[in-house]
Amino acid sequence: MSDQNESDQLVSVPHLLARNVRLHGDKAAYREKEFGIWQSWTWAETADEVEALALGLLDLGVQRGDHIAIIGRNRPALYWSMVAVQSVGAVPVPLYQDAVVEEMTYVLENCGARFVIAGDQEQVDKIIDAQQTVHGIDHVIYYDTRGMRKYDHSEITAFADIQNAGRANAPRLTKELNARRDALGYDDTCVMLYTSGTTGRPKGVVLSNRNVIETSKNTSDFDHLSAGEETLAYLPMAWVGDFIFSIGQAYWSAFCVNCPESAETMNTDLREIGPTYFFAPPAIFEGHLTQVMIRMEDASRFKRWMFSHFMEHAKTVGPKLLDGETVGFGDKLRYGLGKYLVYGPLKNRLGMSRVRVGYTAGEAIGPELFDFYRSLGINLKQLYGQTEATVFITQQPDGEVRSDTVGVPSPGVELKIAESGEVFYRSPGTFVEYYGNPESTASTKDAEGWVATGDAGFIEETSGHLRIIDRIKDVSKMADGALFAPKYIENKLKFYPNILEAVVFGAGRDRCMAFINIDLTAVGNWAERNNIAYSSYQELSQHPQVLDTVQAHINAVNESVAQDEMLASCQIHRFLVLHKELDADDGEMTRTRKVRRAVIADKFDDLIDALYDGSGEIYTETEVTYEDGRKGRIKATLDIRDATVVAKTKAAA
User: Rounded to an integer, what distance in angstroms lies between the CA atom of residue 282 and that of residue 570?
Assistant: First the structure.
């Protein structure tokens, strides 16, 4: 079969699976760590698992076009489920595993799911609760059997039992399965993924086989991905990034997807696997850096000096070596010594010794954080994408990596900037529609296929790189007409290990104010080393020394911002440290940890008023949601502090 003929037949993920069995049948396709032991499945074994489940779904009565919800942590069995669902002509709809019942209910109702494949008892319980209002679910399949023995199994069946039924009925059902699989077309639906819902209800984004396969092919070629890559699948399966990396690119390039044992063991599992291709949102890189800085605080004076000395040198030399630039012999020798003493052990500790291509996206990453990883010799790059684009809109080519851009258009992508400054794109990955929402589809994608991103940015004339300023709804003016771009300031603040999250206010105002969330791990470690007792996050957040530290960080950021003529007015005048972490369960963040500014501004309006009216402290009560779904209230008196603002005359000078 010629390459062209084979390519013409690769019109769905099940077709890619069949090709991988033929070309890489005995190569590892999936690994999963369970009970401390890594288990592995080849492409041939994966195809057998998918086939058995697909036959079982047919036996269960799944019809073409049915929506099947898939909920749980990253496990090979749930990835197989998505391919098996596609194989029978149905549509997989992955949901966030940490979603509360109300969120899950909305998605299940919106997509009209007939079947659910759940990872464990926790997810089954949520589905059962959701069925009090959702009445279209015919059957629930669960993978992990622990705790499920006493449930009513009239409409609930174990994953293994569905597979066994499929194998037992193979003679009767194989012909139908082959017919459905062969009938899959390039423009048929591959998956439906829900947006994070930053500004409103999540929308179901319909992505076709063409969207997924063309994007996977183009971006795999861009970074020369091959069957030899290893990646770690730890991000939510409902997120488009995980789908394109762990299904789209993995099946196109035939590389191995590794699933960690749990969120708690992710860092350990990352070190054991040593991925060559790695993606993480900025929050993950921030967390890793926080752990590094905590360990350095506990290290001996000599080790702290050595770390500081070699990292300072790495800032200038490391990125140049990555980009293939000429470096002096003395600098190269010194960097080599640093690699032996500091950079190498540190990369190994981070699990990034073998990373050949690394990406970050989802939120803008602080330049200091980005440069830290590049200085270690980790080829970390930025991409810009959306669910509606099947992730990729822009990527940074090797040798053209900068912290202040998100790269050039990905292969096959066109960009344009509207008069308002909003970024538009069109590409082979452009989504088909928002499910059941033609009005939103029409307002987002025009008749020529151009999609409005909702982000403000511009394309550099000299390099062709795209620079994103902020969400267009967040970029505004202050009272004096100066530019207000909160994300730029927030990212600078989050570089500090003590600061987990920041929310800056100032649109239409004469000054900027900030809410701060401390990082409990980093600040708790500091408290322990200094024999400072505390009983809760709330108590630690208001400790005078913690407030002093945060104040010093904000003053330093103000010094930095003052050097930017466009954003000098965005310096923070006053701040408070919140008494609780911003939480998706409380509606303050999305499941992908994007801040919901409107919700926060409404929920904490009393705190914002206190920042602007000159109060020195504010008493507040806040409703919170506990892990078991119960509601409660926490009460606190928060200190409000002034920051040091650099005079505009000094900034201009």
Answer: 22
Closest CA to 30 of 78, 90, 91, 71: 78
Residue 416 and residue 424 in contact, taking contact as beta carbons nearer than 8 Å: yes
Cα–Cα distance measured from residue 432 to residue 91, given in angstroms and rounded to the nearest whole number: 14
Q: Which amino acid is at 641?
A: R
pLDDT of 130-160, one tens digit each? 999 998 999 999 999 999 999 999 999 999 9
Q: Report the distance separating Cα 383 and Cα 465, nearest Å.
A: 11
Q: Which residues contact 541 (CB under 8 A, 6 or more apart)?
A: 518, 577, 578, 579
Write down all domains in the chain, each with its CATH number in brackets: 9-279 (3.40.50.12780), 283-364 (no CATH), 382-469 (2.30.38.10), 476-652 (3.30.300.30)
- Alpha-carbon distance of 502 to 517, in angstroms, equals 6
Structure token pair of residue 366: 């602080």
What CA–CA distance (Å, rounded) separates 19 from 11?
A: 11
Asked if 74 and 269 touch (Cβ cutoff 8 Å), the reply is no
Compute the distance between CA of residue 285 and CA of residue 178 in angstroms, rounded to an integer.
44
Q: Is the pLDDT of residue 1 over 50?
A: no
Rounded CA separation 18/146 (Å): 33
Q: What is the DSSP string of 603-635?
A: HTHHHHHHHHHT-SEEEEEEEEE-TTS-EEEEE
d(CA 200, CA 534): 37
pTM equals 0.83
Residue whose tokens read 């091959």: 226
